[in-house]
Structures are given as structure tokens and as C-alpha cells.
TrEMBL record:
<protein>
    <submittedName>
        <fullName>RNA polymerase sigma factor</fullName>
    </submittedName>
</protein>
<dbReference type="InterPro" id="IPR014284">
    <property type="entry name" value="RNA_pol_sigma-70_dom"/>
</dbReference>
<dbReference type="InterPro" id="IPR007627">
    <property type="entry name" value="RNA_pol_sigma70_r2"/>
</dbReference>
<feature type="domain" description="RNA polymerase sigma factor 70 region 4 type 2">
    <location>
        <begin position="97"/>
        <end position="147"/>
    </location>
</feature>
<dbReference type="InterPro" id="IPR013325">
    <property type="entry name" value="RNA_pol_sigma_r2"/>
</dbReference>
<keyword id="KW-0804">Transcription</keyword>
<comment type="similarity">
    <text>Belongs to the sigma-70 factor family. ECF subfamily.</text>
</comment>
<dbReference type="Pfam" id="PF08281">
    <property type="entry name" value="Sigma70_r4_2"/>
</dbReference>
<feature type="domain" description="RNA polymerase sigma-70 region 2">
    <location>
        <begin position="10"/>
        <end position="74"/>
    </location>
</feature>
<dbReference type="Pfam" id="PF04542">
    <property type="entry name" value="Sigma70_r2"/>
</dbReference>
<dbReference type="InterPro" id="IPR036388">
    <property type="entry name" value="WH-like_DNA-bd_sf"/>
</dbReference>
<dbReference type="InterPro" id="IPR013324">
    <property type="entry name" value="RNA_pol_sigma_r3/r4-like"/>
</dbReference>
<dbReference type="InterPro" id="IPR013249">
    <property type="entry name" value="RNA_pol_sigma70_r4_t2"/>
</dbReference>
<keyword id="KW-0731">Sigma factor</keyword>
<keyword id="KW-0805">Transcription regulation</keyword>
<dbReference type="InterPro" id="IPR039425">
    <property type="entry name" value="RNA_pol_sigma-70-like"/>
</dbReference>
Length: 160
């Protein structure tokens, strides 16, 4: 059964926005990108084999639109006002981790977000990002190492 654009928006709208936000780090630009993704969906009207295929298509288009936005001459020549996430929505620890993830280079931020938030495996990420699986694994390892360095001393773990 084919879903309407509204049903797809209801089901995947938050995911598309969060993915764009994770890449561009600005809610207003992420909203624009998400809107572009769904306009593309309505214009192209692709046929999907499954819900997973549909989700992967939406993520792929979102990632591509986000990368295009980040490469644009306008984006490279301007500096927007800093947007911060509202602290009330997250615990202090979560806010600290999110800020650290936001500081990662795009290629690392992308795999961390898709792996930990969207729940994709490294094999699925490789396919989705069109990268060798070992590249995905290397990026994850490097991202974890950078996060560990950034968050060093932030959390006290008690072993028991």
C-alpha cells in the first residue's frame, strides 16, 4: 500500500529534521532542508520497496541536501547567529555530549548521529553513505576518540 505525502511527513518528518539539524547545526536551516526533502518527495514520487527503503531514501536525500547547503558559497561566506539547544529538554550530561558531538567534523558527526540516534548498523551506514564499511568503522572509532578527548573529566564514573 502506497502512503500519501502527509503520512510520510507524519512518520518521518522528525527524523528528517533531526538528521538535517545534526549536520547543519541550525534549526532554521534544518527546517528549510527538511522542507526541500519533502518537496523533492512530492515532485519525484519514487516507488519504494519497503518502509526501510523509504526511510533510507529520505535519509540519503537529507544528507545530500545538507552537504550541498554546507558547500554553498552563501554558507561559506556567512556566519549565522549562534543557536543553542534549550537546556530544559536535556539533562546537563546530555547537553554536554550533544555539544561535543556538534563540534565534531561533519563526516564524524554524520556517522555518530545515524548510528546512535537513528540506530543504523555499520553495514547499513556503509550502504546508506556509499562508503566502504571499514571507512564507516574508522570514522566511528575516530569520532569516539575525539569525543573521549573532548569529554575527558566531564563525567565521573564509579566502578562497582
Amino acid at each position: 500500500m502506497e502512503k500519501s505525502a502527509q503520512e510520510i511527513l507524519d512518520q518521518y518528518g522528525d527524523m528528517v529534521f533531526r538528521t538535517a539539524y545534526a549536520m547543519v547545526k541550525n534549526p532554521h536551516d534544518a527546517e528549510d532542508i527538511a522542507q526541500d526533502v519533502f518537496v523533492c518527495l512530492v515532485r519525484v514520487q519514487p516507488k519504494f520497496e519497503s518502509d526501510e527503503h523509504q526511510k533510507a531514501w529520505l535519509l540519503r536525500v537529507t544528507i545530500n541536501r545538507s552537504k550541498s547547503f554546507l558547500r554553498s558559497a552563501w554558507q561559506q561566506r556567512t556566519q549565522g547567529l549562534p543557536d543553542t539547544l534549550p537546556d530544559a529538554a536535556f539533562t546537563p550530561g546530555e547537553s554536554t555530549v550533544l555539544e561535543a558531538v556538534a563540534k565534531l567534523p561533519e563526516k564524524y558527526r554524520q556517522v555518530v548521529y545515524l548510528y546512535y540516534v537513528e540506530g543504523y548498523s555499520s553495514a547499513e551506514l556503509a550502504k546508506l553513505l556509499r562508503l566502504p564499511q571499514n571507512t564507516v568503522l574508522s570514522r566511528m572509532a575516530r569520532a569516539r576518540k575525539q569525543l573521549a578527548k573532548m569529554l575527558e573529566g566531564e563525567f565521573d564514573y564509579v566502578e562497582g
